[in-house]
Amino acid sequence: MTTLFEKIIKREIKADIVYEDDQVIAIKDICPKAPVHLLIISKKVIESFQKITKNDFPIINKMMEVCQKLAVEFAIENGYRIITNVGKNAGQTILHLHFHLLGGKDLKWDF
Ligand code: 5GP
C-alpha cells in the first residue's frame, strides 16, 4: 500500500517541502506540536526505525545531517528534539520512516 509520504514525494499530495535530495525529503508537519515541527522522511519506504538494516545506514546518516541543517535554518539549533515513533503503542500513524524535528519553545516531556 502506498504511504501518505510516498504520495507527497510523488507530488500527488501537497506539502510544504523544506528540503529534498535523492534520499530524503523534509516537510512541515500539518498539525504542528511546537512552533517548529518538521518531518524528515526517507524516500525509501522503510516501515519504521525498527526495520532499518545496515544497508540503510547511509540514508539514516543523511537524515541526521538534514536534521542538523534544518535546525540551523529554522534557528532552533540551541534546543530541539528529534523523535521517531515506532509502532502503534508509540503512536506511529504513518508506516514510513520519519523523524520529527521539534523546537522553538521550552519543550516538556508532556507535549
Ligand atoms: P507519526 O504519528 O507517524 O509519528 O507521525 C505522522 C505525522 O504526520 C503526524 O505528526 C501528522 O501530523 C503528520 N501528517 C499527517 N498527515 C499529514 C499530511 O497530509 N501532511 C503533512 N505535512 N503532515 C501530515
Strand order of the largest sheet: 1-2-3-5-4
CATH topology: HIT family, subunit A
How many strand units? 5
Radius of gyration: 13 Å
CATH superfamily: HIT-like
**CATH architecture designation:** 2-Layer Sandwich
Number of domains: 1
Order of helices and strands: HEEEHEE
Distance between the termini: 31 Å
Mean pLDDT: 96
So what's the overall shape?
globular
Largest sheet features? 5 strands, antiparallel
Uncertain parts: none
Offer a quick outline of the entry.
The chain has 111 residues and is an alpha+beta fold.
List the helices and strands and how they pair.
Elements: H1 4-9, E1 17-20, E2 24-28, E3 36-42, H2 57-73, E4 80-83, E5 98-103
Antiparallel strand pairs: 1-2, 2-3, 3-5, 4-5
Residues 4, 13, 15, 27-31, 39, 85, 91-94 line the site of guanosine-5'-monophosphate.
Main features:
23% strand, globular, 111 residues, binds guanosine-5'-monophosphate, alpha+beta, 5-stranded antiparallel β-sheet, 2 helices, HIT family, subunit A
Account of the 3D structure:
It is built from two helices and five strands; from the N terminus they run H-E-E-E-H-E-E. The protein is of the alpha+beta class. It has one domain: HIT-like (HIT family, subunit A, 2-Layer Sandwich), CATH 3.30.428. Strands 1-2-3-5-4 form a five-stranded antiparallel beta sheet, with helices on one face. It is globular, with a radius of gyration of 13 Å. The termini are far apart. Bound molecules: guanosine-5'-monophosphate. The site of guanosine-5'-monophosphate has 14 residues, from strand 2.
